[in-house]
Structures are given as structure tokens and as C-alpha cells.
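Progress against Task 2.4 (sequence-to-structure conversion) is shown through the following example record, which the project officer requested during the mid-term review.
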Amino acid sequence: MNNGKAKVEDSGNGIMVEVPSKKNWFVLIFGTFWLFGWAFGAIMVLGTLGIFSGATGVVGPLMFLVFWLCAWTAGGLFIMTTILWGYFGKEKLMASQGEVVFEKTVFNIGIKKRLNASSVTNFRIQHIDDSLFGGSRMAIYGLGPGRIKFDYGFKTYSFGLALDEAEAQYLVDLLNKKIVKQSGNPIS
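C-alpha cells generated for the chain above:
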């Protein structure tokens, strides 16, 4: 029975685990509509600055509007990135031939790490409170630490925020068996 969110491909040469980003549909739909208001505000300020007409105005108010537009753009970029991650983000962990590739991407753009499999240890489950009022603020947006953690030397990585704890535990057991045990690392 496969009713989980993760896609697991276990071949003789390696294993691949792909987890979609956590979906908070209220945040995604609200953020999508918010972007329309954001674009309207940006267009209005650009019009006031004379970007479209070539007009110029008083320097003081224009400097404030330029500063405001920079902050407005930064906020909009954050929301756009969050929305893209929410709709299309994927986390992948692929292990084969002594190498572990760990990715967090949207349309294949994002963070990609190549790790030596013999230094990957201690896959474990981490309880994450992702509730709306009591949890991690970033988890509401589908961001932040995941339910599965592992060590690589003196660094700790995590993934799988979208997973339920039962599925995360299944994947931890599988990854410890397929990656840690095969590479000769002690399972912690």
C-alpha cells in the first residue's frame, strides 16, 4: 500500500526519495491573489516616479518612493519565491555509487549538494509542530526544517516537512538501511 507523499525509487544501483513541498492551500491561494495587489501597487509607484512617462518631480518625495519601491520589491520577491516553492517545490535525496545528492529545487533551480555517502550518518525523525497557531512560523509557508534529519560530518541537513510522521519513520528506516548501513557507518 502506497498512500504517502514521497516517491521512492529503489533500484539495485541506488535509491531516490522525492518529497513535494508542504502545501498550505490557504497561504498559497491568498499569496497568489496578494501578488495581484502587489503588482498594482508597484505599477502605481512606477507611474508616480515617472518611469512610464519620463516625468520628474520633487527629489525628497521621489527618494522616499524609490526606497519604498525597493522594500516593496524585496517583499514581493519573497512572496513569489514562497508561492513558487509551495506550488512546485521538490526535495530529493539520491544515493548511488558512494555519493548522496541532496536537492531542494523549483523547476530544477535551487540548492543542490553532493555529499560523500560514507560521511552521511544518523537518519532520524524530528517532530515538527506545523500547526497554524503553535508551530514554526516558516512551516506555515512550507519552509523551515523537515521531519527527517541526517548528519554529514559536523553539519545537519533536514527534509520532508510535508511528510506525516509515520511516512517519515518509514523513510528513516529505509535510508538508514540503504545508505548508512551499506556505506559502513554506524547507525545512531
